[in-house]
Amino acid sequence: MIQIEEISQENWSNLLRQIEADDMETKQFLKEHEEEIIDKLLGKNEELTLDEKRKEYVRFIAGEYIEETDFESAYHIIEDIRKSHNSSILQFGKRLQGSSSEVFEFDDKIIKFGKTFNIINNPNIVQPEKELDLEEGYRWMTVFERLPIVYTENDKDIAQTMYNRIRDDGMVWFDALGCNVG
After folding, report:
1. Is pLDDT of 37 > 90?
2. Rounded distance, CA 80 to CA 18, Å?
3. Which among 59-68, 71-80, 162-171 has the top mean pLDDT?
């Protein structure tokens, strides 16, 4: 369980990595202590409302991936996810390994910031729920449903089979690893 006294900007991403998807106790703790934890991370500011503090938290976590001109749109997508799941904004920020983008987990969503290629409608590829063009077709914010990982990197045969299917459809899968098969 996370202790408020342990929280700092330096260790926040490590603390988030320790939270399992089904850890309801910690998620409830984050929700109940959301404002206090944001104050601990970003410094207490009595003038800001909780909504403004949430926005500053998102800027703290992902601001380097979002141009200022696109920040409001990106924030509203993240805030919509928070509201629809009745969760704490603090659950946004758990980083996952991505090969060509920065990847964050937020409840049952995966949010990617980075270069995104046109995702062709194909039954073998998870389709994005939302996309936001951050840099005229070069950098995107893309939201996907998080699928349970069924296979691991050791299951190379499954990944190879999927890679072959996608290649046969005229596409290239750049990170064909077992851990990317859901």
Report:
1. yes
2. 24
3. 71-80
- pLDDT above 70 covers a percentage of the chain that reads 87
- The reported pTM is 0.80
* Residue of 95, 51, 58 whose CA lies nearest to 78: 58
Can you spell out the DSSP letters for 12-24? HHHHHHT--TT-H
Packing angle of the helix pair 71-85, 50-62 (nearest 10 deg): 110
**Residue 21 pairs with which residues in a beta bridge?**
none
| Rounded Cα distance, 62 and 103, in Å | 10
Give the max Cα distance, the chain.
Answer: 58
**96 three-state secondary structure:** strand
Residues near 166 by Cβ (< 8 Å), separated by ≥ 6? 122, 124, 125, 172, 173
Q: Do 37 and 29 form a contact (C-beta atoms < 8 A)?
A: no
- DSSP annotation of 170: T
- 116 with 140: CB under 8 angstroms? yes
Between 165 and 57, residue with greater pLDDT = 57
Q: What is the DSSP letter of 90?
A: G
Sign of the CA dihedral running 16, 1, 78, 84: positive
Nearest CA to 172 out of 119, 131, 129 is that of 119
